[in-house]
Backbone:
């Protein structure tokens, strides 16, 4: 099986009675007859929040505004006829209606819309990520699914990359912050960054972050909550490939606690992109040269 990846953004819209809006997959899509939260794939360079607003308008006719990110999860679906194991990272946002009229996308990926209580949703076929978010049992998908690959390129463009990564605002009981320095030869070299990095095929975002925390700093942590989604588009990123690449990075940022901190040590498993790791007291952070995402997460401008 060839391993492929995609990133999707989905919205949770509730009515006044606490019901959630779901969309049923049409015959044109990979999961016909299966219900899920409205949403779909993120386009290259597109911010995930804008993606969920666009997908919601296409699938439901409603203009919505994306609010806080509720969850970041991943799953893998096997498409035997294509010989592809598709890993999908799914970002789930709260959304609020700003206008429009509710209608299904009959010529697209969904052919019916409905409002469901959790009990009502449990009685219909659900995508696993939707069942998990609604807090209902996850049931096997109907036999014979999925049928075909979701929309999007199967073969990635060698000079255009989309990458999903998980990072952490990592603190210890003394209030210190853990940061890692980007190594020479990588975009942002010499800047202090949040611990974390790209997740592996089949890996959940939070699990990937905790793995990276061990590799980059030798620390055992626990994820406390999901803070934000960060989007980075660099159309001419110069890294170890030796030529400019059109990079689009989608990054989730978690709050992480290390209850028993040790000296921060970079291991050989970090892959060469991390030069150093260190703990910093709050009054030391503001004077550091930091990446934009690290500065935002720590609440300091850096330099």
Residues:
């Amino acid at each position: 099986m060839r391993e492929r990846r995609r990133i999707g953004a989905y919205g949770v819209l509730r009515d006044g009675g606490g019901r959630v809006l779901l969309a049923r997959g049409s015959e044109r899509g990979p999961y016909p007859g299966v219900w899920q939260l409205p949403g779909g794939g993120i386009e290259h360079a597109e911010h995930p929040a804008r993606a969920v607003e666009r997908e919601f308008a296409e699938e439901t006719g409603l203009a919505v505004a994306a609010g806080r990110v509720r969850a970041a999860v991943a799953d893998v679906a096997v498409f035997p006829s294509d010989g592809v194991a598709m890993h999908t990272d799914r970002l789930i946002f709260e959304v609020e209606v700003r206008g429009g009229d509710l209608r299904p996308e009959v010529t697209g990926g969904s052919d019916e819309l409905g409002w469901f209580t959790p009990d009502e949703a449990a009685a219909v076929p659900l995508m696993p990520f939707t069942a998990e978010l609604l807090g209902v049992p996850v049931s096997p998908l109907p036999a014979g699914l999925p049928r075909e690959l979701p929309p999007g390129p199967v073969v990635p463009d060698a000079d255009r990359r989309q990458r999903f990564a998980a990072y952490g605002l990592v603190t210890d009981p003394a209030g210190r912050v853990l940061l890692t320095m980007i190594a020479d030869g990588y975009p942002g070299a010499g800047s202090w960054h949040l611990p974390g990095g790209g997740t592996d095929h089949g890996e959940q975002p939070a699990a990937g972050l905790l793995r990276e925390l061990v590799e980059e700093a030798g620390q055992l942590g626990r994820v406390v909550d999901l803070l934000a989604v960060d989007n980075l588009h660099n159309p001419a990123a110069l890294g170890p490939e030796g030529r400019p690449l059109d990079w689009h990075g989608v990054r989730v940022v978690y709050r992480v606690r290390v209850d028993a901190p040790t000296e921060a040590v970079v291991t050989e498993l970090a892959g060469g992109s991390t030069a150093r790791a260190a703990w910093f007291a709050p009054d030391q952070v503001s004077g550091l040269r930091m990446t934009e995402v690290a500065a935002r997460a720590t609440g300091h401008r850096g330099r």
